[in-house]
Design brief:
The protein has helices at about 45-55, 60-80, 110-115, 130-140, 145-150, 185-190, 225-240, 250-260, 265-285, 340-350, 445-450, and strands spanning about 25, 40-45, 90-95, 120, 125, 155, 160-165, 195-200, 215, 245-250, 295-300, 305, 310-315, 325-330, 330-335, 355-360, 380-385, 390, 400, 405, 405-410, 420-425, 435, 440, 495-500, 515-520. With about 525 residues, the protein is of the alpha/beta class. The radius of gyration is 29 Å and the shape is globular. The strands form eight sheets. It has an eight-stranded mixed β-sheet, with helices on both faces. It has three domains: about 25-85 and about 475-530, no CATH class; about 90-145 and about 185-305 and about 410-450, 3-Layer(aba) Sandwich (Alkaline Phosphatase, subunit A), CATH 3.40.720; about 310-395, Gyrase A, domain 2, CATH 3.30.1360.
């Protein structure tokens, strides 16, 4: 039975409600037709059910009207108690640079506990380029880079003649950088859901005249203490019902991977400490009685690959500064040649090194879903996995504390090392389950579903995320008949309540993954004889 059946069509009265558990069906005996009533009256909310009885019951005696209204009111009260069918709250934690296989390393008890309690995708296929800002926005909007417009951490906008630079340049807060997508906090805000974000890049920006209810702005790499405090405050926000959505960004996993490499002891130390924090998070959910109210998602924006100083490509001999007006990148390169120089620059680069692939804009592979945005430059170049590109003027292989850096990302998103993570725990996730790999664009609409809000247009698909949801419980058996001693109630036999959950097929036209159907059946044979 579809959720819109009979909606707004009951004797011209709009009985639609906001609860997701509709429709409600009141069944009457065949003899009800004698007085012009249908066999089944269907409405879409508890209040609608009450309205049905308000219309139907004048045909009955006062005693039965009182009896039936009492039963309906009692059931409605039970349905609306805490723990009823309502949308869950959501905590999303983005662990920057957390590669798909980090979970499997020894000694990470907290992460292993999280996986046992929830559902894990085999891996997350992040959008190309596998760089932070493009994937921050892909995760939050469900759009590919060519649709939301973030093509790199550093970009040139030819329409506005401005640059977006990772860091704190004033121009990055201009809304035109962000307006091509609806991030989750904006979608939630429009539908009266409150959101709190901690260190999440972009949460401080006014997008389409809206902001989250709270944003702790990113000003420096969040410390481990910042991470703990953000989780603690998020729990408080859930307990006092000030937040429906909490987002927390954590960067040290990426920083240690860059500085020392994905196999370094420095990264291992961060992984162990964050694992302990996640373990504590699971305990906090129980302590605050939130384990049946809050879904928790762990995800990442990209993976990390080992690099070494003997695998680099130096463009200084072949690429002249005077031939370009903007040049960004070290693995994924955005090249803006000066007017009339595009072919010259392309020809100089295209066969320069066997581990560097160079594309004119119109030749960029469609599978990357990148080429159709106006911020994509006339030329891009992509290094093979494990290689690093040195660009003019006079740049060198980067170091940290006098030592060469050990990790990088930005490579082809088909590369295994570029895979990220997606896993979730909570009332709307299966336990100890693994599903196939997931596209980063699929996350946004799934989070909207968890929050019971309508997503904005996006590039995502729900084929895999549907598999993460718990299977519906079997229909409960009705209780035994209720009888009354009064001879006037000779054949009132039963009043029972059934909750049925149905998963629509993939080609269903229903927008909700779940449709709750509540059925009241009243056997009233003999009732109309009075």
């Amino acid at each position: 039975m579809k959720g819109d059946f009979w909606r707004g069509k009951l004797w011209g009265v709009n009985l639609s409600g906001n609860l997701r558990v509709g429709p409600w069906c009141v069944k009457l005996p065949t003899r009800s037709k004698r007085i012009g009533l249908p066999e089944c009256l269907v409405v879409t909310s508890p209040l609608g059910t009450f309205a049905v009885f308000a219309v139907v019951l004048p045909a009955f005696t006062a005693m039965y009207r009182f009896l039936l209204i009492s039963c309906v009111c009692l059931t409605v009260c039970l349905i609306t108690l805490p723990g009823s069918v309502t949308s869950s709250k959501l905590l999303i934690i983005l662990l920057d640079g957390f590669r798909w296989d980090y979970f499997d390393r020894e000694g990470l008890t907290g992460y292993q506990n999280f996986l046992r309690m929830g559902t894990r995708a085999e891996y997350l296929k992040n959008s190309f380029p596998t760089i932070s800002y493009p994937n921050y926005y892909t995760i939050m909007t469900g759009l590919y880079s060519e649709d939301h417009g973030f093509i790199d951490n550093k970009m040139y906008d030819p329409k506005h003649k401005t640059e977006f630079l990772l860091g704190f340049n004033r121009e990055q807060y201009d809304s035109y950088w962000w307006d091509d997508g609806d991030p989750l906090w904006i979608t939630a805000k429009r539908q009266n859901k409150s959101s709190y974000f901690y260190f999440w890049p972009g949460c401080e920006v006014t997008i389409k005249e809206l902001k989250p209810d709270y944003c702790r702005m990113y000003t420096e790499v969040p410390s481990m203490k910042d991470f703990k405090d953000s989780i603690k405050q998020g729990m408080v926000n859930f307990v006092n019902n000030s937040a429906d959505l909490v987002g927390i960004y954590f960067e040290l996993t990426d920083k240690m991977g860059h500085n020392y490499g994905p196999n370094s002891p420095q990264l291992e130390s961060v992984l162990r400490e964050t694992s302990e924090i996640i373990d504590r998070l699971l305990v906090q959910l129980k302590e605050h009685h939130l384990e049946n109210e809050v879904n928790v998602i762990l995800t990442s924006d990209h993976g990390m690959s080992q690099i070494t100083p003997n695998r680099y490509i130096d463009l200084n001999p072949v690429l002249k500064v005077q031939d370009t007006h903007h040049l960004y990148g070290s693995v994924f390169l955005s090249i803006w040649p000066k007017e009339g120089k595009t072919n010259q620059v392309y020809n100089a680069l295209k066969n320069y090194h066997p581990n560097l692939t160079v594309y004119l804009k119109h030749d960029i592979p469609e599978r990357w879903r990148l080429k159709h945005h106006y911020r994509v430059p006339p030329i891009i170049a992509v290094a093979d996995i494990g290689w690093y590109v040195i660009t003019p003027p006079g740049k060198r292989y980067p170091t940290v504390d006098g030592q060469p850096i050990g990790g990088y990302h930005g490579y082809d998103n088909e590369e295994t090392d570029m895979r990220g993570i997606f896993t979730g725990v909570g009332p709307d996730f299966r336990k100890n389950a693994v599903v196939p790999w997931l596209n980063a664009v699929d996350i946004y609409q799934f989070m909207c579903d968890l929050l019971n809000i309508e997503p904005s247009p996006n590039d995502g698909d729900s084929t895999v995320t549907r598999l993460m949801r718990p299977k519906p419980a079997p229909l409960p058996q009705p209780p035994p008949p209720v009888t009354f001693p009064d001879e006037q109630t000779e054949s009132i036999t039963s009043l029972f309540f059934v909750l049925r959950v149905q998963i629509p097929s993939a080609d269903s036209d229903l927008t909700d993954d779940y449709i709750g159907e509540k059925l009241f059946e009243i056997n009233t044979s003999g009732l109309l004889n009075n």
